[in-house]
Design a protein that fits this description.
The complex is a heterodimer of chains A (479) and B (416). Chain A is α+β, with helices and mostly antiparallel strands. Among the domains of chain A are: 4-93, Uridine Diphospho-n-acetylenolpyruvylglucosamine Reductase, domain 2; 100-217, Uridine Diphospho-n-acetylenolpyruvylglucosamine Reductase, domain 3 (2-Layer Sandwich), CATH 3.30.465.10; 219-335, Alpha-Beta Plaits (2-Layer Sandwich). Chain A is 34% helix and 20% strand. In chain A, the strands form five sheets. Chain A has a seven-stranded antiparallel β-sheet with strand order 15-12-14-13-18-20-16, with helices on both faces. Chain A has a five-stranded antiparallel β-sheet with strand order 5-6-10-8-9. In chain A, helix 1 runs antiparallel to helix 3 (53-66), helix 8 (232-244) packs across helix 10 (287-303) and helix 13 (351-365) runs antiparallel to helix 14. Residues 463-470 and 474-479 of chain A have low confidence and may be disordered. Chain B is an alpha+beta fold and 416 residues long. Chain B has three domains: 1-185 and 386-416, Uridine Diphospho-n-acetylenolpyruvylglucosamine Reductase, domain 3 (2-Layer Sandwich), CATH 3.30.465; 188-291, Alpha-Beta Plaits, CATH 3.30.70.3450; 300-385, Alpha-Beta Plaits. Chain B is 32% helix and 25% strand. Chain B contains 14 helices and 20 strands. In chain B, the strands form five sheets. Chain B has an eight-stranded antiparallel β-sheet, with helices on both faces. In chain B, helix 11 packs antiparallel against helix 12. The longest helix of chain B is centred in the last third of the chain and has 18 residues, at 345-362. The model of chain B has no long low-confidence stretch (mean pLDDT 96). Classes of the chains: A alpha+beta (479), B alpha+beta (416). At the A-B interface, strand 9, helix 7, helix 8, helix 10 and helix 15 of A face strand 8, helix 6, strand 10, helix 9 and helix 14 of B.
Chain lengths: 479, 416
């Protein structure tokens, strides 16, 4: 039930956007109590679906007038609790602002509303010779507004970069309710790069209402290879060897034996069941150079001890390989009733070490861990398997997760490569950054969000963000 | 570039050789309320509004060490005072590079290039500085050292100060250390170019490059006296208005294929007299293209950023104002750099503010002044009209440099 203090807000919001665009009944609100991070839950007091930038501005002004917290939400696929309405308040769900406003191929940009699903843009570009490069594995559901908020990645970011590298401009509603454009369709804007600064700010600085994105030319050709290895070390050493040789693959993904068995059972690709690891390696670019790159990669993998390197025979086999990779998380259900995915980053030359440490940490805590991840970026996604009916297992999974992320920091890496801090990883911020770093980040937030009404208790470990101690690892998918 | 003393009103210049000393200098200046001017190689000090307030120079020249270069991770951590040439030489030893092209790279420092967000011809393929900075440390206006990002290529923990500080012209913090992601050095490069009979013949060629099978590194439209006679390109055809020069990189076999393919595509569009530039001549031409924006004697050098499809139209406008202007457009990106042959202070309100700025706005972009010899340019003349976004930039500035001591009065903020 909406608290009585907030009843007038719901009425005012209805006057702005219409009754059909406001939810205030508990049975409706419970859908919005969490995102892909299910450990912490809290219902918003009101959910509102703006239809336009002006709606968003009016909503923000109402929230300010009533002094209630508010936060934006896209499709709710965040894995870090970025959409958790801490302290309740008004949730601004942008999924009804879902128009692709312009596609301009000559000038290589598109303008989209924040609720446009990532894959819709790629689909709209089919046949043009251009695509939108960031391709998170959740691209069939996640929105571009959400991608901007979290600076989303995906398998092809190794060569093409993450969301911020493809964002030319942002229109946003500021915390004072004003509508401001940062950047735009041309490349350089005078002054500070606030577009780049707002990307990845996890909904704590601005409500994004429009995005100018860069479109990328499709590669002329592609070669997709499958390297089969008898040890995980050989596989990770191959990764460094390939990149060390000056080849930047479009994608370089690794699966270890634990996940391979499940993927093979689900998709029957024909992975050798005794392989300790496989690498999915894709190079793209000019046809004129691809066979040479492929041959060099095969040679390097074999030098590093690969049992064999196969090439995808045709487009169908390539698609099946990618299906195995992108849906690997769906296959985890064959291994365990529950699982928890982590998102750490290490320098890629530290991959052999971190994978060994993950194995040791799993053994120490009696937790089985399998791995499928963006190896070329050093972005690991260890999947910790457990049964959530057993509280002792839950405790062990949390301890093992924390140890793995601590180990990533010790390697000179990060605790999140693409999922974000949200509420999940606030406690790690003090391990990555000192007080002065965090004070600088707080200053940036104060500049944009002085009253901290927008997405309070996110990202930065301030007084308002305590009480987020994890009690329960979630069952959730990674990107 | 002009001598530091002619540009900045400095009472003294300090050259810290470690971060702690840098922090102490800024903290002391903060306590005393003294203005601070960060100085790298001194190659872009005339970028921005003139410095009027007396203050102390901070040279980063002694903070020039390579901190960590794990070549196989394709990242490098360096102090901000390293010159672009030193950096390039270090990276070249591992067949790697930072693909950011700047003039005077023997003097220009990485910190200065980050602060100015300068970029050159190869931005078409490789993007700009913001795409390469993955970790940064800086000293804010209070004298507090802070950092963000890290040393890994993928990292979304915390706010992205790498983007905030890239292009901040030293107004939010003195950049002390930078971590970059880097790229493999291409084996080979070449150019294909053609002379343009008139500007109208250029846009169809530019539009065709957008859907070309080739993958250019640079698409340069070169117009005006500076380019008419070039050691590599030769003398331009009589009656031609400019040249379209496309830079190509890759393996030797890729570059050979690219040259053949583009020649063929151009021939289909009626360009019969294209010519390839390879090997040593290509290296020389890359140098010419890199150095063009630096023209200390030109009365006015501007950079417009417009929609790529409006590049030619903007070039035409520049020529209307000054038929003898020399122009380099990174035409694939809609960037037009124009060196005026004549421009006096009286032309500023009519020509720059009255014509160039509105035209750029209509073409989806803006104009900024890169350098000038004119007196008394206003903020509007140098950076264009303040916008709603400028207001929020001022709020950020207020948080990082509350006393307004860092490079005061020179950037877009109206409150400093």
């Amino acid at each position: 039930m909406i608290s009585s203090a907030l009843l007038p807000i719901a009425d005012e919001l209805r006057r702005v956007v219409g009754g059909e665009n406001v939810l205030a009944a508990h049975s409706d609100l419970v859908v919005y109590e969490c995102d892909g991070f299910v450990i912490e839950k809290n219902c918003p007091d009101v959910v509102v679906f703006p239809r336009s930038t002006e709606d968003v501005a009016a909503i923000v002004k109402i929230c300010n007038r009533y002094d209630v917290p508010f936060l934006p939400r896209g499709a709710g696929t965040s894995l870090a609790g970025g959409c958790l309405p801490v302290g309740g308040g008004v949730m601004i769900v942008l999924t009804r602002m879902k128009q692709i406003l312009e596609i301009n191929l000559r000038d290589r940009y598109a303008i989209v509303q924040p609720g446009v699903v990532n894959l819709w843009l790629t689909n709209a570009l089919k046949g043009t010779g251009y695509h939108y490069a960031p391709d998170p594995s959740s691209q069939g559901a996640c929105t571009i507004g959400g991608n901007v908020a979290t600076n989303s990645g995906g398998p092809h970011t190794l060569k093409y970069g993450v969301t911020v590298n493809h964002t030319l401009g942002i229109e946003g509603v500021m915390t004072d309710g004003s509508i401001v454009e940062f950047g735009g369709p041309s490349e350089d804007s005078p002054g500070l790069d606030l577009t780049g600064t707002l990307v990845g700010s996890e909904g704590t600085l601005v409500v994004v209402t429009k995005v100018w994105v860069r479109l990328t030319r499709n590669p002329e050709g592609v070669r997709t290879m499958l390297g089969v290895f008898d040890s995980a070390d050989d596989a990770t050493n191959s990764i460094s060897a390939i990149i060390g040789a000056g080849i930047i693959p479009a994608a370089l993904e690794m699966m270890d034996q634990g996940i391979l068995v499940a993927v093979e059972a689900a998709f029957h690709f024909g992975f050798p069941p005794d392989a300790k690891a496989i690498l999915l390696i894709e190079v793209d670019g000019l046809e004129a150079g691809l066979d040479a790159q492929r041959d060099r990669i095969v040679e390097l993998c074999l030098q590093c001890g690969a049992r064999e390197v196969r090439q995808a025979r045709d487009a169908a086999e390539r698609l099946l390989l990618w299906k195995c990779r992108k849906q690997a998380f769906g296959a985890v259900g064959r291994l365990s009733p529950s699982y928890c995915t982590q998102d750490g980053v290490v320098p890629r030359t530290k991959l052999p070490y971190i994978l060994r440490r993950i194995g040791q940490i799993g053994e120490k805590h009696g937790v089985r861990i399998v791995n499928v991840f963006h190896a070329g970026d050093g972005n690991i996604h260890p999947i910790l398997l457990f049964d959530e009916r057993d509280p002792a297992q839950i405790e062990r999974v949390l301890e093992a997760s924390g140890e793995i992320l601590d180990e990533c920091i010790a390697c000179g890496g990060s605790v999140t490569g693409e999922h974000g801090i949200g509420v999940e990883k606030i406690s790690f911020m003090r391990k990555l950054f000192n007080d002065d770093d965090l004070a600088a980040m707080t200053r940036l937030r104060v500049a944009f969000n002085p009253d901290n009404r927008l997405s309070p208790a996110k990202m930065l470990p301030t007084a308002g963000a305590c009480g987020m101690e994890q009690k329960h690892p979630g069952r959730r998918a990674a990107l | 570039m002009t001598a530091v003393a002619d540009i900045l009103p400095l009472s003294e210049t300090q050259s810290p050789d470690d971060q702690a000393t840098l922090v102490a200098i800024v903290a002391d200046a903060h306590a005393a309320g003294t203005a601070l001017y960060p100085i790298g190689g001194g190659t872009s000090l005339d970028y921005g509004l003139p410095a009027l307030r007396p203050g102390i120079g901070i040279s980063l020249a002694k903070l020039n060490r390579v901190v960590d270069y794990p070549a196989r991770d394709m990242t490098i951590t360096v102090e901000a005072g390293i010159t672009m040439d030193q950096l390039a030489a270090t990276l070249a030893s591992e067949l790697q590079m930072l693909p950011i092209d700047v003039p005077h790279s023997g003097l220009a420092t990485l910190g200065g290039v980050v602060a100015t967000a300068f970029s050159g011809p190869r931005r078409y393929r490789y993007g700009t500085m913001r795409d390469y900075v993955i970790g940064i440390s800086a000293v804010d206006g209070r004298g507090t050292l802070f950092k963000a990002g890290g040393r890994v290529v993928k990292n979304v923990a915390g706010y992205d100060f790498c983007k905030l500080l890239t292009g901040s012209l030293g107004t939010l913090g003195v950049i002390a250390q930078v971590t970059l992601r880097i790229k493999p050095l291409p084996q080979s490069s070449a150019f294909l170019f053609c002379d343009l009979r008139n500007l109208s013949s250029c846009e169809p060629l530019l539009a065709a490059l957008v859907i070309s099978r080739t993958t250019p590194s640079a698409i340069e439209l070169l117009v005006g006296p500076h380019w008419r006679e070039n050691a590599v390109l030769g003398l331009s055809t009589a009656g031609s208005v400019g040249r379209l020069v496309v830079g190509l990189e890759g393996t030797a076999s890729e570059v050979e294929w690219l040259l053949g393919q583009l020649t063929q595509e151009w021939r289909a569009l009626g360009v019969t007299a294209s010519r390839a530039i390879t090997e040593r001549e290509a290296t020389e031409l890359w140098g010419d293209l890199r150095e063009f924006p630096s023209a200390p004697d030109a009365p006015l050098v501007i950079k417009a950023s417009v929609l790529p499809s409006r590049t030619v139209e903007f070039v035409r406008l520049v020529l209307q104002l000054d038929p003898q202007a020399s122009i380099q457009a990174h035409a694939g990106n809609g960037i037009v750099i124009a060196r005026f042959s004549q421009f006096d202070s009286a032309d500023v309100s009519r020509g720059l503010i009255g014509r160039l700025q509105p035209a750029a706005r209509l073409a989806g972009g803006n104009v900024v002044v890169l350098s000038n010899t004119l007196a008394g340019l206003t903020r509007q003349a140098v950076w264009g009209n303040a916008t709603a976004a400028t207001h929020w930039m001022g709020k950020v500035k207020g948080q990082f440099d509350p006393k307004g001591l860092l490079n005061p009065g020179r950037f877009v903020y109206d409150n400093s």
